[in-house]
Design brief:
- The chain is an alpha/beta fold.
- It is built from 9 helices and 6 strands; from the N terminus they run βαααααβαβαβαββα.
- A 6-stranded parallel beta sheet has the order 3-2-1-4-5-6, sandwiched between helices.
Length: 218
């Protein structure tokens, strides 16, 4: 490993939350009179902060979502997490190897701090992430695809952007990492490789990630 920091996205990279949250988001938007399919939600909102949902709905319909939209949505998501959420296969093994090798890592997610922590507690990933390793779009003014979150995480971890490797599964996240001047590795287990254009490398199984990162800088 020749990177000084590995920055993980959370949803879809560490926890298998994207199918759950996008199913519920599509259903809730449809319930509110904004017909949205699961595929629509994946295409438009996967990897984004909640403000993007509000912005796109208002842009397309001229209507604002209810003031309690985020609270209601998150309550539904957290309840579903308790029933269904699992860690991404192989993610814990990657974290264990990074720890053993002394390679710093953190998570930088479009989700809220509460969402990250609920997901980590539910899946057992909380043992790998103390507060100093968790960064959320809540910490910066703009979420992905702006580079702000990744740059903030790198600064807090004391690493320059060009020595960071980002692990992402969404087009918005790849764009954010590229804009931050970081190498980014696209996880294609759920997202077609063609949607992650601009990534430094692609992988479909967590077992491929560390060899890929090692080759990248050797």
């Amino acid at each position: 490993m020749r990177y000084d920091l590995v920055i993980f996205d959370n949803d879809g990279v560490l926890v298998d939350s994207e199918p759950i949250s996008n199913r519920l988001l599509a259903a809730y938007l449809t319930e509110l009179g904004h017909p949205t399919s699961y595929e629509d939600s994946i295409r438009d909102y996967m990897g984004s902060a909640m403000h993007r949902v509000h912005d796109l709905v208002e842009e397309r319909t001229g209507q604002r979502l209810p003031a309690d939209f985020d609270d209601v949505f998150h309550a539904r998501v957290f309840a579903a997490f308790e029933r269904e959420l699992k860690p991404i296969a192989g993610a814990m093994g990657v974290l264990e190897e990074l720890t053993a090798d002394g390679v710093p890592y953190c998570v930088a997610s479009s989700g809220s701090h509460e969402r990250i922590r609920v997901g980590h507690r539910t899946t057992g990933l909380d043992r790998w992430f103390d507060d100093e390793r968790i960064f959320s779009s809540q910490d910066v003014g703009r979420g992905k695809p702006a580079p702000d979150l990744f740059l903030y995480a790198a600064e807090r971890m004391g690493v320059v952007p060009e020595r960071c490797a980002v692990v992402e599964d969404s087009p918005l996240g790849v764009r954010a990492a590229v804009a931050a001047g970081m190498d980014v590795y696209g996880f294609t287990a759920m997202t077609p490789a063609g949607r992650l254009s601009g990534a430094t490398g692609l992988f479909e199984d967590m077992g491929q990630l560390l060899p890929l990162l090692s080759r990248a800088r050797s």
